[in-house]
Amino acid sequence: MYSKAHYALQYALSLSYGTHEETFQLLQSFAYILEQQNPGTITDLQCADDGKFLYFFMSLWSSIRGFRRCMRPVIAVDGTHLKGRFGGTMFVATAQDGNEQVYPIAFGYGDSENNNSWEWFLECLRGALGHIDDLVFISDRHASIEAGISKVFPYATHTICCWHFGENMKKRFHRKDVADIMDSAARSYSEIQYDRHMEELRKLHKGAYDYAIDAGPHKWSRVHCPQRRYRLMTTNVAECINSCLKFARQLPLMTLAEFIRNMLQKWFHDRHTVAQSMRHRLTDAAHGVIQKRVEKCNYMTVNAVDWNIFSVKHKGKQWTVNLARKTCTCNKFQMDFLPCSHALAAARERNLDFTSLCADYYKRETLIDAYSVPIMPVSHPSSWVVPSDIAAGVVLNPKTKRQSGRPMEGRHVSSSERTTTQSCRRCGQPGHNSRRCSNPPMVNEGPRTIVPDDYRRKCSICHTIGHNKQTCPQKDTPVE
Q: Where is the CCHC-type domain (predicted)?
């Protein structure tokens, strides 16, 4: 019955979205129409000598332009499994806009996460974006990603996701506290804070401390990173894309690409409309951060050194703020390009507009510009006008096939994320199981569950109340 239901579902999907064989053959024509409808879009289709599909890359011009003009130069890359008939892997490169929303840049499709596939994807990404100053990549600790970035983007800085790094520490040392301390050290803005957390980690678990040092603090900590990571410490923006495509990842490849294009079309339209209706000069997310920091200014003492330099005191600590250079000794100002609470307190002394201290990344006009170029739709294949040489191109099914068995609907959940509570099936109480239960069993009476107070066990051999068949004195008595 399960196989029959599975084949029925696959047949229904093929009627709605087309078969895998048909969409592979239409992939080259789809890429041509996509570039015609959205000039500047970059696509790349790679096939083997026998015509079998290898790789496909897609980066829409609206995303390319928006990232180059309006986004912080931090890209999160990740790979996720496809759940269709031929399996494979989808590669994702995403950024984050000034309103802390996911900003997709490029998508790729290949056989698996290996050195060749990641190097090909990163080369296509470099061809689409060109040279980006102070570029930072964030990923998990996959060796192929690190090798590809060092080869294709030698001028960029590769960092690792502090959440994934913390999960690796939990799995390796079976302790959550060491991962929490490491996360605090990774998010520290000053070396003093970083050293304090690392000393705490060293005293708590020397092995975890050595593991963090061997991994390279310049890869997972904010304060030791050669370039700015801003407020992006994880690959959550890439994981969000994978979650949005949970259903679409089982569809044929061309249908998946069209699903992504349609999703981005809606995102760009809706976010452009929302950005135009924002009431502040900053984005809503940046304005919220500034307001929380402004609340702390009321308790700070500000002393002017000159017109631009101030000494700010609070709770026995002192910081030096330079408004002209946009720096503070707490390092938040220059690392996030957003004024810290000390800088806001100093700006209040000079009656300066807080917006002038923020980078353009966080301003409403920049957000509007990021989504100002709409993504045009692609019509039905029956109306495509494609040159004969492209339409005659042959793209066959890839050699790879997905593994047998039912594919997972969601991602693998680590042991530290599982929140299971053991409960007894005999009495229903938490904290133990039925083998160690000494409570009377539950008795269901309609919607209520009642445990009788006078319950006592009854032997199934002699039918005497007070013991069971395991302790019955007559269990070895021969039956006449």
A: 424-439
